Each structure stands twice: as C-alpha cells, then as structure tokens.
Amino acid sequence: MIRNLAASRLKMVQHVTTRKKKTVGKGKLNAPAFICPLAQAKDHGIRQVMDAEGNLTGDLADPDLADGQLIRLYEMMVLVRAIDDRGWILQRSGRVEFWIPHRGLEAVHTAATIAFNDDDWIFLGYRHPGTLLLRGVPLVQLFAQFFGRADEPFKGRRLPTLMGDRRANVVPMTTQVGSYIPHACGAAWAAKIKGDDTRFLAFFGEGSSSRGEFHSALNFAGVHKPPVVFLCENNGWAVTTPTSLQTASTTFAEKGDAYGVRNIRVDGNDPLAVFAATREARDLAPEKGATLIEAVTYRMGYHTTSDNPDLYRTPEEVAVWEAWDPLIRMRKYLENKDLWNEQHEEELWARCLAEIDVAVHAAEAMPLPGPASMFDDTFEEPTWMLEEQREQLLAELEPGE
Amino acid sequence: MSAVKQRSRKTTMLEAINAGMAHELENDPDVVLLGEDVGRAGGIFRTSTGLQQRIGSKRVIDTPLDEKGIVAHAVGMALYGLKPIVEIQFSGFIHDAFEHIMFCAARYRWASGGQYSCPMVIRAPSFGGIKGGFWHSQSVEAYFVHHGGIKILCPSTPEDAYRMMIAAVRDPDPVLLVEAVPLYRAMSASFVHDGVPAEIGRAEIIRPGKDLTILSYGPMCHQSVIAADDLADTDAVDVEVIDLRTLIPYDIESILKSVKKTGRVVIVHEAPLSMGFGAEMAAVIQEKAFGYLHTPIQRVAAPDVPYHFSIGDECYKPNAHRIGLAIKRAMAFEF
User: Fold this and answer.
1) What is the predicted ipTM?
2) Structural domains in chain B, sorted by start
3) Which of A82, A275, A292, B77 has fewest C-beta within 10 Å?
C-alpha cells in the first residue's frame, strides 16, 4: 500500500521533472531568478504565522488550535492531495473525463473552511474538495460527482470537481468564474435582512477579480455591509495569464480599499495564517461587514487536464514554490510540536489511498443517469413544452426495428 | 381584509403594478424590492411610489447603479430564501445582467440537481411610444425565451399587471415580467385588489371572431383589436384577437383551438421580425395544425434595425394600419 502511495507521488514528481528537461535552456522562457514572494513576505505585505520550516514568525499570532484540530487539518490537506493525484491518473487513463488539479492549493480552502461554522454558507470554487469532506460529505459522493453518476446531488450534470451540497451548506458555483461572488454577497445580505446569524464565505481566484462581478460585489458590500468573507486565492495564474497581465494593482487585497471593504493579504501556503485571518473576518462580519482576503499561493499543477503549462511558465518558477509546499510546512509545524512523525505520515498516506480506492471503485460502479432525468429540475414543475420534448426524445432514443 | 379594500377601484397599469408589489411586500416578509431609484423616489416611472415609506428601506432598497450587480445580488438573495423583485430601469439596460438571469437564476435549480432555486421577479419596462430612442424603447423578450428555467409574462391590462405581479412573486421559478411602458398611464380599469394571482400559462381571447386569429401580447394587443374593429366595419372580416399573456410557457391549447376554428393567423409583436417570438408561434402552428390552415401565416413586427428616435413611434413600431394590411393579405391569399 505504501509502495502504491510512493508510486503515485513519484508520478507527480516525474511529471514535473520531465517538463524541466524539456524546457530548460530554450532561451525563450529564460527569466531572471525567480524568488518566491513568501520568502520575502514582509516586503510584499504578506502576513504569516509560520515560515518555511514551520517555525513561528512572530507576525500573525498563532491561532492556538487544539492539537486534534491541527492534526485533522493536516490529515485533510494530505487527503486532498491524494485525491488530486488520483484524479489526474483517472483522467489520463480515460476513466474521468476531465480534471481540475489542486496541487499546492490544499491550505487555503481547508483552513478557511474550519474557520467557519458548519451552518455558515460557503460558495465553492473548483479546487476545494476538502471543504465538503470537512463538512461530512462522504468521499464516495465526491467521486460519484467526478464520474458524473446519477446518484450524486447534481445527477451527473456538472463537470468533475464543480462540487457542492446543500446539506453541507456548500453552494455549487456558477461556472463562469467570479460570477458567483455577488451571489454570495446577496445571500449574506439576505441573511442580514432576515435577521439570521449565518455568515458567508466565497472562494475565487485572482483572475476573477478582473470581472465586473467582483467589482459589483465589493461595491454593494461596502455600502450594505453583509456578513461575507471574499477569499481571493491568488495562485499566480489564471489559466495561462500571469497576475501582471491581470491587474496593475500591487496587491489584490488593496482593491478592497477602493470600496471601503476591510482587507488583508496572507500567506496562502500557511494554513494557520489563512485560519487566523478568515476566523477574524468571520467574527467581525456582523459589525464590520465584508472582508476581502488575498491568500497568496501557487497552482503547482496544470490549470486543467486540458492545459499545458510548458507554454507559459518555467520549471524554475514551479521549483521555487515547491520549497513552500503547504503540506511540508504544516507537517514541520506539527513535528515541531511533537504532534507528528514519519510513522504517522506513512500510516496517513496509506489510509488516504485505501479510502480513495474504496471510494473510486464504489463510485465507478454506480449507474449513469437516464436521458429522462435531463428534463428534471428545469422548472419546479415541467412545462408542457418540456414534457412534450421529453416524450419525443425518449421515443426517438428507443432502439430501432 | 376590510370591505373598503375589497371595493373595485379605477386603476392605471402603473398603480396596478404598485398595488401588486405592495400586496406581496405587506403579506410576505421574504419579499424585497430592489433597483435603481426604486426607494425614496418610487422608481423613475413611480411604479413603487410610497413602498419604501410603508415597508422600510431594509426591504425596499435603492441600489448602486449596476444592473448586473442588482440581478446577481438578487440571485444570492433568492438562493438564501428571499423572493426579490428586481426593477431594471429600462429593459434596454438589462443586457448587462443577461448572464445572471439566464445562466444563473434560470439554471440554478437544474445545475444543482434541484437543491437550490432562484424564485425572483425581474421587471423589464419595455416597448416604444415614449420618444425614448432605442435604449429606452426596447423589446427584449425574444432574448429570454430560448431556453427553459425562466417564465416570461407580459400583461396588457391593469388587472393583468396586478395579478401577474402577484403570480410572479409567488412562483417557485424566476419570472421575467415584461412591462409595457406606453401603457403605464394610457388606460385604467376597475377591478378588486383582492390579492388573487393570475394563472401563468393561460392566454385570453380579448376579441372573439371566426375568420382569422391574431396572436399578440403587450401593447400590440390593443392595436390588434383596433385593426380588427376597423376591418369588421369595412371588410366584414370577423377577427379573433388572442392576448398570449404568457410567452413561456405559452398556451398551446388556446392557440390551436382558435387556429383550427379560423384557419388564418396573423402574429403581431413589437420586437424585430427575424427569429422573434412570432417565428416560434408560426413553427408550432404549422407542426400541430397544418391541415387546418387556409392561408400562410402572416407576421407583423418591427424591422431588424434599432428603434428610431424621431420617427420610430410612427414608422418603426407596428400599428393598427399595418396589422390591417396583414389581415387583408391573409384573407385574400389564393394558392
């Protein structure tokens, strides 16, 4: 089992190294030595709890999570990475149609999720399986969604990884990225109007901040003060477009200033910094309204399985970020506290892979939806137009004579 | 409800829309009204006059000037459990919000496997006749009828405006309410403000006849009746005029019943001709009632150009005269 795990991780490493061989020295992509902004966090206004070695920096205060919670957080980050490894393999072997990798992005969504209460609402992006798992959604349900099976909440209608589940208060995104930022803001505003204490969290990427909806949501939020946290994951790349072609602002957080929305820039590969900032924003929401958090992180994998990063970034840049891998830092932090060791690590990976094996096999065995189900849920009650179309389609799909 | 409130009242379209919104705002704490200038001023047409004063600024909300933002925030409100009524100041400004109407509100139920829904009303003041130029005179309904998930209503009388507003607010799915700006103050009618909703999906015969069927909606219903009355006098043609009232889902039974009776059809709308709602009407009639048709289906519509400012009200918008010509074409046609 552990060997399987090692093999799986090795594949990811090989995947990175092959690209190195191909592109180094071609000249075109030669850029000045790239320094990870997290290594110069102070200069970039990036707030941290821990450094690369998991030691406290003395900047943001350690949120002092209980030992059990720290371990739960780390275990989820590892499971999330293991899911990504498997998703990649499933797509490349033709068993899943499409995959949106999340390698390197394990810290932000897991830490932000546990900073919120389970009855708070989260508007999810598409690199965030940990949010659902932390809220009790079974792993097999996630894989059933990836396989487009009938018996997952969305009945096979959504692309793999476009997840959510109302029972977990996790709203599935509208897939035009960023379009749902004002949906989250509007829902938070609704809770305020109704006098509920529900709080709201919306994940989105830095590319989404270029859309009008980001502007709309922050503008409305500044005026009407709904209890919402806008969590901008600045992972460096919007498909192939770097942040420098996305905005001329120095940071994404500072955009909040223009709208009267409080904001903070944190190290997105430091789960405790993300937790501290998100928790504070959540707690202040009834009084202060919205907060914009920019979490500086890095998409170490492809944008999707249809992407080819060789076309737009250097392996040197990726390698620099590998040293700031959130899994390594969190593990070191736990080891510094004597909460973790090599044996724990091996047992955890073995457990994760075993759980994924079971979930993959169970999900893949589930049936696909039937064509009649396409017509369901268009309206609460189907119109005569849809009923007629359904009847005709089903008749035409019957095997011929 | 008091006897005074039950009494029939002479009401303009504008007052009817106001009364419909007021009824729902007063009876359901989850209903909110939001839009540009809808609060303190009561909207630029004054359709929401007095509502903020009665209901409060928490639920009758003056928003920033941002159609996309208004609809998108209303989508979030609806997801959480409110029933927002959104006013778009003029339907010519609705296009910025198209994605949130058609690909968010109209899709959330389906895309979430039925877990979420977006019950909301989008009010689109439409049509020409107020010397508005093309930004302020648009007929946008055809952009919204292409896929399911949203219902499209278009009242042509004050009573329908009142009852359709109530029906739209109570509907579990998003509703686009196409309001006829030129009718806001053009007519009044007496009816009881009793909170009874219209039935969505039902057309109405507003002028019975046996020789030819006119299918129309909104202000063009009135032009169609004028044309029918004129030709009854001069040409002895007995025209039936049907107010479709609901575009999605349209009332196929009423349409086919009338067409099978008359065998001749003229479809009238103020929106441009090509690929308009009339095209769907013509297609479905020939699919389901081809054998009953005596003559080809005629369409009366605006040309595929923008609404002209200085001469549009007279030359661009269809009127009773042009509808009359179409009726004559349909009656005189010989195979």
Assistant:
1) 0.95
2) 3-192 (3.40.50.970), 204-332 (3.40.50.920)
3) A82
